[in-house]
Amino acid sequence: MSAPPDKSFPVTWEELHRNAKALAWRLSEMGPFTGIAAVTRGGLVPAAIVARELDIRLIDTVCIISYDEFSQGQLKVLKGVAGDGHDWLIVDDLVDTGRTARAVREMLPKAHFATIYAKPAGKPLVDTYVTEVSQDTWILFPWDIEPQFIQPIAKRRNG
Ligand SMILES: O=P(O)(O)OC[C@H]1O[C@H](OP(=O)(O)OP(=O)(O)O)[C@H](O)[C@@H]1O
Ligand SMILES: O=c1[nH]c(=O)c2nc[nH]c2[nH]1
Ligand SMILES: [Mg+2]
């Protein structure tokens, strides 16, 4: 198991819900969208929230493996979506290096690509996002974490 980057950005379920709704508000001024392609697995929860807000019932998945915990591995596409993405919305939780977004965009070039979080390297690949996070920060999603004791910052600094 590789270690997480030093800087982390933990996200609670409430924050995620709020930010996914903020994304839906922005997207509600665009479209309308025929359906949503959720990029698994991280895009599944945001896609469910956006689908509920925009009353979209047609949901498909683009299934991609890119990271093994914190390290980027070989990109593997397990499943795509038919068509060129015209009038479709792609939803993922975040763009980091942009490698996943690039691969999905090649599959569905006409779709609108939306994420909740964007790091600078991936930002140009996204049409709509809510929050920018610095490149050296790891976003910790609520499904990947649980509450536990953590050292005060001063003690962490002194080794
Ligand atoms: O911009 P990139 O550097 O390509 O990184 C972004 C992608 O990495 C994560 O997926 P991951 O491969 O970890 O799979 P998961 O969604 O199943 O957690 C995240 O959900 C994005 O899909
Ligand atoms: O949970 C995650 N947090 C991140 O910051 C990230 N970047 C790529 N893949 C990621 N997964
Ligand atoms: Mg993902």
From TrEMBL:
GMP binds at residues 96-100, 138-139. CDD domains: PRTases_typeI (cd06223). Its main location: membrane. Residues 13-148 form the Phosphoribosyltransferase domain. It is found in: Cell membrane. 5-phospho-alpha-D-ribose 1-diphosphate binds at residues 41-42, 92-100. The keyword Magnesium applies. It catalyses: XMP + diphosphate = xanthine + 5-phospho-alpha-D-ribose 1-diphosphate; IMP + diphosphate = hypoxanthine + 5-phospho-alpha-D-ribose 1-diphosphate; GMP + diphosphate = guanine + 5-phospho-alpha-D-ribose 1-diphosphate. It is a peripheral membrane protein. Pathway: Purine metabolism; GMP biosynthesis via salvage pathway; GMP from guanine: step 1/1; Purine metabolism; XMP biosynthesis via salvage pathway; XMP from xanthine: step 1/1. Its cofactor is Mg(2+). GO terms for cellular component: plasma membrane. Its EC number is 2.4.2.22. GO terms for molecular function: guanine phosphoribosyltransferase activity; hypoxanthine phosphoribosyltransferase activity; magnesium ion binding; xanthine phosphoribosyltransferase activity. The keyword Cell wall biogenesis/degradation does not apply. Belongs to the purine/pyrimidine phosphoribosyltransferase family. XGPT subfamily. Homotetramer. Purine salvage pathway enzyme that catalyzes the transfer of the ribosyl-5-phosphate group from 5-phospho-alpha-D-ribose 1-diphosphate (PRPP) to the N9 position of the 6-oxopurines guanine and xanthine to form the corresponding ribonucleotides GMP (guanosine 5'-monophosphate) and XMP (xanthosine 5'-monophosphate), with the release of PPi. To a lesser extent, also acts on hypoxanthine. This is Xanthine-guanine phosphoribosyltransferase. It comes from Hypericibacter terrae. The gene is gpt.
